[in-house]
Amino acid sequence: MKPYAFGVDMGGTSIKIGFFRKDGVLVEKWEIPTRTENHGANLLTDVALAVLSKLAEKGIKTSDVEGIGMGVPGAVYNDGFVKPCANLNQWGGFDVSSELSALCKMQVKVLNDANAAALGEMKFGGGRGHKNVVFVTLGTGVGGGIIVDGKLVAGVHGAGGEIGHMKVKTGEVAICGCGKKGCLEQYASATGIVRNTKLYLEQSGMESALRQFETLSCKNIFDCAKAGDIVAVNQVDEMTHMLGKALANIACVVDPEIFVIGGGVSRAGDIVTENVKKYFSLYAFPATEDVDFVLAKLGNDAGMYGCFTKIAD
Ligand SMILES: [Zn+2]
After folding, report:
1. For the segment 252-279, what is each residue's pLDDT rounded down to a tens digit?
2. CA 241 / ligand 1 centre spacing (Å)
3. What's the pLDDT tens digit per position in 95-144?
4. What spacing in Å lies between the alpha carbon of 167 and ligand 1's midpoint?
5. Between 3.40.50.2000, 3.30.420.40, 3.40.980.10, 3.40.50.150, what CATH number should domain 4-119+301-312 receive?
6. CA of 247 to the centre of ligand 1 (A)
7. Which of 107, 98, 70 is nearest to 85 (CA)?
8. Distance between CA 283 and CA 261 in Å, rounded?
């Protein structure tokens, strides 16, 4: 058995690299900048150099490394072909797995970053001990990953787990980043709740502590909701309502054991899981109701752990 493997999470500003023992112990992690100029022409050579120089530094042969699992912010086909990524200056459009494998002389598997985070949370984080997990990440957008019997559902177009674009509302006038209307992301992302709260404050004469903030943040809204501000409470309610509804619909399809909620918004804590659970129960098909809701545990390392899991398992 080869004793080591790498998990590499390629983000828009930095690339997180983890060097792991195959039993799951993280030996070392570090970051390198994401150089997106020239459509990311240097990205794979940067990753290869980082990986190979770490092995040289430690005196470890490439033949002792199982390979590299790598997460990217875009759609991935067949564990290798990456569609051009908006966050990486349109890098992609080729078989990333084969190219990186040729540079490093080891096996490479590529997956979507939100799917990677789902896998990481299942194996090492909030979903530990479970094999049927739905992971949802609430940040600038809403992403996710669906795991059934321990396996990711990545889909034929690499769009499996794109929970953010489930339709949860009719009559929406604003357009989502995907070009359609009424997507979960428009209500349950940090960007969404801030946008909707600002709109409400503009249109209503309600007194609210939220009016004191010059640039309103998602954290402001949750903090004010915890302090009992009625406008903030209602906005959190609306957001978790949409999320609870979406998760109830997902449960009808995959009937999971546990929902793991991560991303920046989840830092607000139990207020998120408790409210989502309340609305989930309102909509859930009765047979799917016995399910847990937990917060993610790995933070920004979830993707890196998931990439390791992809190559090591
Ligand atoms: Zn959308």
Report:
1. 999 999 999 999 999 999 999 999 999 9
2. 18
3. 999 999 999 999 999 999 999 999 999 999 999 999 999 999 999 999 99
4. 8
5. 3.30.420.40
6. 16
7. 70
8. 18
